[in-house]
Amino acid sequence: MSKKVIVIGAGFGGLSAAAYLGQYGYDVTILEKNPSAGGRAMVKMAQGYTFDLGPSWYLMPDVFEEFFGDFGKKPSDFYDLVDLNPSYKVFDQKDTFEVLTTPDVYHLFEDLEPGSTKEIKKLLSKTQKEYETVRKKLLITPQKSITEIGRNPESLKFLLNPELTRSYHSRISKYTSSPEIQRILEFMTVFMGGSPENIPAMYSLLAHVDLGMGVKYPLGGMGKLVDAFVNVAKKQGVKIIYNSEVKSIKSTKNIVSNVETSKGKLFEADIVIANADYHYVETKMLDTKNQKYSEGYWDKKVLSPSGLLIYLGVKKKLPNLLHHNLFFDADWHKHFDEVFNKQVWSEEPLLYVCVPSKTDNSVAPEGKENMFILAPVANGDQPSDEVIKKTVDSIIKRIEKKIGTKFSQDIEFKDVRAHDYFKNTFNAYRGNAFGLAHTFMQSGPFRPKMQSTKLKGLYYVGQYTNPGTGVPLVTLSGKAVSNLILGRR
Fold first, then answer.
1. pTM, whole model, 2 decimals?
2. Residue 65's CB: how many other CB atoms inside 10 A?
């Protein structure tokens, strides 16, 4: 009889792990708290608009090619990809510019800082090699300890590179003194759950991911990627049960035995893989004796920001915006200080604005725009509705000013979410949006482990574990944990 596996959560990490184990004959069932798969990548449809509620950047396409290839498929079997070039538009405090992939982006860098091309080419050449090393050697391993990494000379050489031990910002500033170029090269640290000052330089390989590999978009939205993962998992015999929230993980003699849902239903399990908030699983689903990480452990951790999420349906076309847009018109340093140091609400945050209807006619009615706005804000408690409304109104006015078009009176659909959305929907600790920040002491072997040392048969997958946050990385975490279970690491 094949081993019974229960996966808690149908996010990308859970779907990935389930598919790999199903491929090897395990009896896999995913229990999903919410009515649909995807985790933070759920989709909302309203008034003819289709909104991706979470991830909207399609990066590291090689990861998805590998995932589907492992099952004899390719991305084009499920969705059509569009290259976005320009990749995105930047609205800085004074200027506005479009960012293309290499080599075209060098024209912009030369305009912003004459003579900078040589040094930035040198940086991007290094980050490409670093990405290739990390991709092959580190991203699909559990990284249990420093000793384990030390057995791999290439990985050790990468980690001991003195240029990578400094902060992200310190490394970037070595190659360019232009604040505008620095912001372009550093903004992705937000998606790593941190700031350019507290994320280590080893993650600057993201510059290659952004500018070297480019940004793509699956027509129909990121929900098409979720559908593809579900399709692959089901083809491997995986069963998915929605609206089934797991409340506790049961054990017998320190071995997992079953899980219990909020409706009191028991599911037998030889193996449990938690693709849910790690803190919530440890502190709410397990008996104290089976917890590896106490509340004290989590209190000391640096969590990613939460997010103010604004979904708008606008009944007219909006000029001067691209598919992806970054608004650096606010005070860069002040915003990061509010989010990570002072931990206070930002009334004038930096913004990411996504308008997928610029690329995809299917996500909005004809002649209208689908707009998603993300403002990183300090995790913790959600402010009052009055404070949120004031901030949202201010954000809309800022966008109107920058694009030279008023649209506040043309908004026919609005949905605003913040900390409570992450807490209630995903049981996210302190309402965080991206899990643990990738500080040095929360990277690699220092991240929470994939395998419980207290309860045999309990494993973890997703953004709290290795390799980290973001859709490609949690997809790889599913492969890593399956390899761990299969004894193939």
1. 0.96
2. 14
